[in-house]
Amino acid sequence: MFAYFAEHAVRIKHEAGRVGLVVPTGIVLDDATKRFTQEIFAQGLVSSVYHFNNTESIFPAVHNSYSFVLLTLGKAEKADCVFYATNPAQLEDEKRHLSFEPTDIALINPNTRTLLLVRSEYDLELCRKLYKAAPVLVKEEGETTVNRWCIKTMGMFHMANDSDLFESLDREQAATALEHGLVPLYEGKLFWQFDHRFASFGYSEQRSLLDCEQGSLLDVHDVDITLKRDRTFRIIPRYWVRHEHVAVRMAEKGWTKSWVLALRNLASTTNERTLIVSVLPASYALGHSATLVMPDFSDKKAACFLALLNSMVVDYVLRIKQSGTNVSLFFVKQLPILPPESFAPADVEFIASRVAMLTRTADDINAVWLTEYPAYTFQEPRERLKIRAELDAYIAKMYGLTREELRYILDPSDVMGPEHPSVTFPGLKKKETEFYGEYLTQRLVLEAYDKLVSGVLK
User: 245, 306, 346, 378: which is deepest, by most CB within 10 A?
Assistant: First the structure.
């Protein structure tokens, strides 16, 4: 109903007049209203957009999880915007104001042409720079699609609709499952960036995994590093699937490589990371809490693609775009991803060799992925952070970011001061500060960037 109300206001407004509306945030974000958003911005009809979260009960009768916008329509060269305000007084804070140019939406969200909720002008400038340095992953224009990484995507199995294909095994059966043509059904919570053995279900000594008469299945738990150092160790899934069912799904997609990339579908911007991707053997099954993303390139080029998706730079942009907990494909397709031709042989070797260090730590992956590199023992957390920091710094440099811009992406308050309205990785900063006594990722990434600039790191 609010969309009809807003459209009617545009139609009855005098050419030189203005109209102010209080409407749900979906008016500038939802797919259903994107044509309206495109039209009012393209015609320069937006004077201001002030976005509020109702956390301070501006409207007491409305739930505090609700958000809304004050939309002022009238001829204007630029739209004055404030996002994530919680009370009207915050509109007086100049640091919160930013201005969209007419070309911004087409540049940053070319597929959906919806608005971007940016916390500060500096964030908007950074987004402009990143999108000018790299096109969106998949650009959709009517019937034309530009897909430089030649990616195929697939949701393999639905946990409810395909449940008749799933099998539950006890400890003894699970030990020989692969020999009997059964493969693990991966769920999103079982993997992490560059780590397909992040978490596992478990068995007790007394009962099988699904012996519900004696108790429910054991919870998912993080896999201890001592187990990860054993390259033969495999996680225990909730369910198993016959290999031929997986083969049929892969054949339908025309995928013949021995590996796939899996993207976790659920992650909040308050978590440590939002875009979480790992590599899996192509023979494994995947539930609907993750999506297969398959770039049709060599292992080494695909390793560069994996490093891009897991980078701080790309995650920074996703965190600006994503307001909920669903990492939807339409978000991912509109991320600024350096195209394959951006990677010279030296770039590919730098990135692929480090991705190999992070991923080639288990026999099942070692058999199918980046096989020209040696097998590695799963590294200590600090060592893995150091390797990842080198990747993050290298990728930031490929995007043309300065040290100050990278420093901002890691922690805006470190550059702009504690009163700055933007936040980027608060969950990661909090966890590392509690565990290491410092925001270790920030220090390691900036150190790696300095070494790259000085030529020490190659």
Answer: 306
Where would I find the beta strands (DSSP E) of 106-198? Answer: 139-141, 144-146, 151-154, 166-167, 182-186
pLDDT at site 212: 41
Task: Tell me the average pLDDT across 271-298.
Answer: 96
CA atoms within 13 A on the CB side of 150: 11
Using alpha carbons, select from 323, 258, 268, 265 the residue that is nearest to residue 51: 323
Gap between the Cα atoms of 184 and 236, Å rounded: 8
SS3 of 343, please?
Answer: coil
DSSP letter at 89 equals G
Strand 182-186 versus strand 285-286 pairing type = parallel
SS3 292: strand
The predicted model gives 319-336 an average pLDDT of 89
What mean pLDDT comes out for the span 391-397? 98
91: left (phi over 0), alpha (psi -120 to 50) or beta: alpha
User: Ramachandran region of residue 99, left (φ > 0), alpha (ψ -120 to 50) or beta?
Assistant: beta
At residue 11, the pLDDT reads: 86
Q: Which amino acid is at 328?
A: S
> How would residue 208 be classed by pLDDT, with cut points 50, 70 and 90?
very low
Q: Minimal CA–CA distance to 29: which of 74, 78, 84, 75?
A: 84
Positive or negative, the CA dihedral 55, 126, 385, 343 is positive
Name, in order, each residue with C-beta under 8 angstroms of 143's C-beta and a sequence gap of 6 or more: none
CA–CA dist 81, 117 (Å, integer): 9
Q: What span, in angstroms and rounded, lies between the C-alpha atoms of 18 and 200? A: 58
Q: How far is CA 244 from CA 99, 249, 250, 256, 262, in A?
A: 54, 9, 10, 14, 20
Contacts of residue 323, defined as CB under 8 A and 6 or more positions apart, other chains included, come to 29, 117, 269
Please state, in angstroms and as integers, the Cα–Cα distance from residue 444 to each residue in 173, 182, 307, 436, 450, following that order: 44, 42, 17, 12, 10
Among all chains, which residue has been given the structure tokens 């013949």?
256
Tokens of 263: 């993207």
Mean pLDDT calculated for residue range 4-22: 87
Which residue type is seen at 385?
L
Q: Is the pLDDT of residue 123 over 90?
A: yes
The sign of the torsion formed by the CA atoms of 358, 364, 368, 371 equals positive
